[in-house]
Amino acid sequence: MFMRAVSLVHRWVGAVVGIVLVLLGLSGAFLVHKDAWTIVSHKHDAVVQSGQQVGDLVEHFMKAEGKHPQMVVFASPSLGVDRLAYAGGGGAYTDQAGHVLASWASDWSRPELWLVSLHRYLFMRPQGETYVGIAGFIGILMVVTGSILWWRTRQTFEFRLWPKRMSRPAIIRHHRDLGVIIAPLLFLSFITGALMVFRPLSNVAFGPGTTAALAHGLKPPAYPSVKLGKDLDWVTMMETARQQFPQAEFRSLALPRKESGLITLRMRQPAEWLPNGRTMLWFAADTGRLVEARDAMDMSVQARLFNDIFPVHAAKIGGLFYRIIMTLSGLGLAILGVFAIATFWGSGNKKAPKKQKKA
């Protein structure tokens, strides 16, 4: 009775939600290598990191004709161009001298951007992030129930990346055996994705107080809502940041939003796994004065563990080997989902006709 219930749950949930898991698996497999296939010139240039040079670059962006960017994501070793984000969804890539290499009016113009929107929001920002988190929990359920079902037939296990033939029994057997092979990686992908969406669950994963510690580390200091100054000394601001954290990389700069009166600068310390880092500095938007600086390495152990979830999920650690492993995980999830949907809605859910008794 128990195994029958597990089988029904696995089959029906997989049939209904399978297409979402297929999309998440495929998009994740591509995004693991996003910087490699992003098409833009100068992306292999050496990265500029001195306070003077970064300050000059930001000043160039802020004083350029037209509207200034709301955010600057600085060049990294894997993608040696800067990315600008404007209010309204537009953006641009520039070289590290500030020359525009490519620009767009919406994310739909750049595959690397709309794939992120698909994988993170299912094109339904911002509420789609919740749906993706729920899909992560459903994925965990599928891994657990699938492993339980495989245990009954473990003696017939056979390693195959593709079904032996395109018959329903062969596809089901392949689905079962391939699923148990990649189950640990799928579980890792699903649980890290769900934890990023539903932060309170980190209190279960990393111990009580994790969410509070993370919120404390990210909460900006108190400062009145003020307008952005017209003649800010960006060079001094960046050199101040370099003096505070001599070994850190400049990662992003965000102008004030809503009622904030602070400019937020993110840096990445050598010991941080998170690509954009959690080492943060806040400057007064009207004067450019440093209000507060926080070293990510001073955060609690639980908060630092939470910061490591994204690089584990997105294969930002471990080099090419780990990227390949996570790529295979995403592709494997897509294969499992496609075949499961095909067999269920094709012939997998049809009962075999009863044999008629001979007269």
Automatic annotation (TrEMBL):
Transmembrane feature ranges: 12-32, 131-151, 178-198, 320-345
Family annotation (InterPro entries): PepSY-ass_TM (IPR005625)
Membrane in keyword set: yes
Lineage: superkingdom: Bacteria
Keywords from the named record: Membrane, Transmembrane, Transmembrane helix
Keyword Membrane attached: yes
Pfam family membership, one: PepSY_TM
Protein's name according to its UniProt entry: Iron-regulated membrane protein
Organism in which the protein naturally occurs: Acetobacter senegalensis
Lineage summary: Bacteria, Pseudomonadati, Pseudomonadota, Alphaproteobacteria, Acetobacterales
